[in-house]
Amino acid sequence: MKMFASKGLIIFAEWCMALAALCVQAQDWSGRFTLVPMSAPELVLEAVAPGAAEGAVVSINVPNGADNQVWVMTRKGDAYALCAASAPALALAAAGGGTNNGTRLVLEADDGKPWQRWTVKMNANGSFSLLAAHAPAKGIDDFGGGDKPGSRQDLWDYHSGDEHLQ
Description:
Blueprint: H1 2-26, E1 31-33, E2 44-47, E3 58-61, E4 71-76, E5 79-84, E6 90-94, E7 105-109, E8 118-122, E9 128-132, E10 135-142, E11 153-157
Antiparallel strand pairs: 1-4, 2-3, 4-5, 6-7, 8-9, 9-10, 10-11
């Protein structure tokens, strides 16, 4: 009986984790967000000012409430387009569709390309990561672990415990 109770507890725990994962996938994240990196909680993700031109680089900076620091997430099929409120026709993208570690994040005209789409992944600590739809093993990362204003953002191998990807 003790073994059954333990096995039942394990099954219940696995069920809870599966349910949490389903809730994240079922969650509609459409809306306006300020994105705060876990590795630099005093900073926010921004399209480098003015953040309204194609090719604008994405970095982190001190929050100032400007539209280039507000991200509009819009569901597009099974992923999301992320656009800076300062440039609603431009999507957050992996430059040139790159998939290598270190691929810069930029703004591109939203043409529905796979590298302009992102999925939301819930981490064990309750934080979330944004993973590239075209390279699901890669997420938004602080380049080189940068946690200072102006640190550029890029793609990097996703590891759930890495706060630079949360």
